[in-house]
Amino acid sequence: MELSVTQTIQDLRTDLAMELEMAKDEGKKVVGCLCSYTPIELILAAGAIPVGLCGSTQTPILAAEEVLSPDQCPKVKATYGRAISGTCPLFPLADCIISETTCDGRKKMYELLAREVPLLVMDLPQKPDEQEALTHWIAEVDKAKSFLEHQLDVVITSENLRDAIQRGNRRRHSLTRLFMAMGSTPPPVTGVEFMEIMSKIGHYVDYDKHINLLSQLLQTLENTVTDKISQVSTKRHRILWTGLGNSLGCSKVLELVEESGGVVVCQEGCGGITRTEDLIDETKDPLHAIAERYLRVTCACMTPNAQRFKDLKRLIQEFKIDGVIDLAWQFCQPFEIESYRVGELVKKEMGLPFLHIVTDFSQSDVEQLRVRIEGFIEQISENKKYARH
């Protein structure tokens, strides 16, 4: 697979669907995933292929709004719309889906989605620091294991789980190094290029081949840094992007940031570095270790979500950040409310410019966002001038 950055997300899904169809012809099973809380290692241990099914484009939303009310998160509507409209080539290939009770919109939508394909909703405890939460989540992970065994007609052994954990950790280690490469001054590629590359290589059928591809990309980026051949100007302001991510709605924000003189060098949250740097403990009981790691995932659905703020402070320092953009989808109440505390941390404690953006997957607000982002970048420039005097 060439590491081109020109393919669209829809192109990627079409290519992946063709590969999945061939894999299914050879007897492979496909399991759909809808969140960072999905224990991928269970799927790998079952000998199946995990595939992300979250909606990330505007096209299927109209079909979803025939059932769902318009005032729902675009991610919820796009995901359901893809399932019922036939616009996604991946949904028909899923033998089953694993989901979790994160936000209210998602879990109620899952009741309708379950009509389309066998679906397990894992009951995610939302006070992760409580001891009872881990006990409950271990039981839910065990239920997910049984669900996969039943749906896929397999037996998942402890040996299978340990092997899957080791493979998953290898992938996380490579992904973390890729994210860290963007911390160089200058970064090896722009934030837009990095997101497009990561979108392309984020889809896989052969897991081991995927890990090898990550290693090749890592070598390319690290060589770019070592040989000082990056085309990214050191004058660009370094931006951290936090909140929701990994969709076309995000790409328009990244593009505007970079058109305005910034470069996104770090992503915290969905699809970012904090989803990869936390490895699974390979010395513990595998089911217990898997549950521990996935309960540590940070999300605004958790209360308190203290680790997110520790991560933000650390990443701002490690990546030498000049300003922070916090992104939330329309009607996403948990992230909307938590953004106030993020702003407090960034502005009051870290002394940096902060911009909170609420948007959807459409292009209707691009010019409005352009004005706000240009003002944000100008604020960073003024801060730097003031700091020099």
Brief account:
With 389 residues, this protein is of the alpha/beta class. It has 14 helices and eight strands.
Keywords:
globular, disordered N terminus, Rossmann fold, YjiM-like, four-stranded parallel beta sheet, Benzoyl-CoA reductase/2-hydroxyglutaryl-CoA dehydratase subunit, BcrC/BadD/HgdB, 52% helix, alpha/beta, FldB/FldC_alpha/beta, 2 domains, 389 residues
Plain-language structure description:
Belongs to the FldB/FldC dehydratase alpha/beta subunit family. InterPro entries: FldB/FldC_alpha/beta, YjiM-like. It comes from Desulfobacula phenolica. The chain has 2 domains: 152 residues, Rossmann fold (3-Layer(aba) Sandwich), CATH 3.40.50; 228 residues, Rossmann fold. The longest helix has 24 residues. The strands form 2 sheets. A 4-stranded parallel sheet has the order 2-1-3-4, sandwiched between helices. The protein has a 4-stranded parallel sheet with strand order 6-5-7-8, with helices on both faces. With 389 residues, the protein is α/β, with parallel strands linked by helices. The chain contains 14 helices and 8 strands. The N and C termini lie far apart (50 Å). The N terminus is likely disordered. The radius of gyration is 21 Å and the shape is globular.
Poorly predicted sequence stretches spanning 5 or more consecutive residues: 1-9
Query: How does the helix and strand content classify structurally?
Result: alpha/beta
Return the domain count. 2
CATH architecture term of the largest domain: 3-Layer(aba) Sandwich
Cross-sheet strand order for the largest sheet? 2-1-3-4
Distance between the termini: 50 Å
> What CATH first level of the largest domain would be assigned?
Alpha Beta
| Helix residue percentage | 40-55%
The CATH topology of the largest domain corresponds to Rossmann fold
The description of the largest β-sheet is: 4 strands, parallel
SS elements, strand count:
8
- Spell out the helices and strands N to C: HEHEHHEHEHHHHEHEHHEHEH
Instruction: Write down the overall mean pLDDT.
Output: 93
